[in-house]
TrEMBL record:
Family: Belongs to the PAPS reductase family. CysH subfamily.
Name used for this protein in its record: Adenosine 5'-phosphosulfate reductase
Species of the source: Gordonia humi
Main localisation: cytoplasm
Active-site feature positions: 245
Length: 250
């Protein structure tokens, strides 16, 4: 095997530069920066080289970004958003995706895994989500996301610290070691009350499953309604110790 040393050095240099940008941005904006301020910094810093991750549980992050980034020329004319279409989503989630793209002027990247569900069933056996949910998430989420993020220098997510203990220390700006780019979490500090107030005040689109009792929505085979009083994410991979799909491990 021949190693391209020039390419390796270039990649290492790019990573060092992105780490420095993340560190400088975090220091400049500070720990109390608002969501709009973070998004404007993202647009000014990365221009067309960032993308917004949208899970289509709601359109809050997209709405905040649309209002904050008023000069769309800086981002190439339209916001870029990414949706992981795993092949296992609820019909309501796909419907929310379609509704969001009709309301906002987005360039939506609908990311699909290398194999369809049927092809994966033939390759590794039926219902991998039941026998090995971690591997199913890797194949249908982590691998395609990593490939889709490769052209970008930063990604923006809607994760919030109150959502789970694994997200309690989520920074506003950091270098994502797993995907090799800068990660911005503009809503990280938002409480549930602030989140709902924003939805109500701005009439933001929300997946209808939320009103049906699903506070955290993933793939249909791995998502159930939590019982009254249970943790909101207890309906994800219910009965297992798994709490994250691997996208936000860093």
């Amino acid at each position: 095997m021949t190693v391209d040393l020039d390419s390796a050095r270039s990649t290492e240099k790019d990573i060092d530069e992105l780490r420095a940008i993340a560190e400088a941005g975090a220091a400049e904006l500070g720990p109390d920066a608002g969501a709009a301020e973070l998004l404007r910094w993202t647009a000014q810093t990365f221009g067309t080289e960032f993308i917004i991750a949208a899970n289509m549980q709601d359109a809050v992050l997209i709405d905040v970004a649309d209002k904050a980034i008023t000069d769309k020329d800086t981002v190439g004319g339209r916001l870029k958003a990414l949706f992981l279409d795993t092949g296992y989503h609820f019909a309501e989630t796909l419907g929310t995706r379609d509704a969001v793209t009709s309301v906002y002027d987005l360039e939506l990247l609908n990311v699909t895994p290398e194999q369809t569900v049927e092809q994966q069933d033939e390759l590794v056996g039926r219902n991998l989500f039941a026998s090995d949910p971690g591997e199913c998430c890797r194949l249908r989420k982590v691998v395609p996301l990593k490939a889709s993020l490769a052209p970008y220098r930063a990604w923006v997510t809607g994760i919030r610290r109150v959502e789970a203990p694994t997200r309690a220390n989520a920074p506003l700006i950091s270098f994502d070691e797993g995907f090799g780019l800068v990660k911005i979490n503009p809503l990280a500090a938002w409480t549930d009350e602030e989140f709902q107030e924003y939805i109500d005040a701005n009439g933001v689109l929300v997946n209808p499953l939320v009103d049906e009792g699903y506070p955290s929505i993933g793939c249909e085979p791995c998502t159930v309604k939590p019982k009254a009083g249970e943790d909101p994410r207890s309906g994800r991979w219910a009965g297992r110790t798994k709490t994250e799909c691997g996208l936000h491990a860093s």
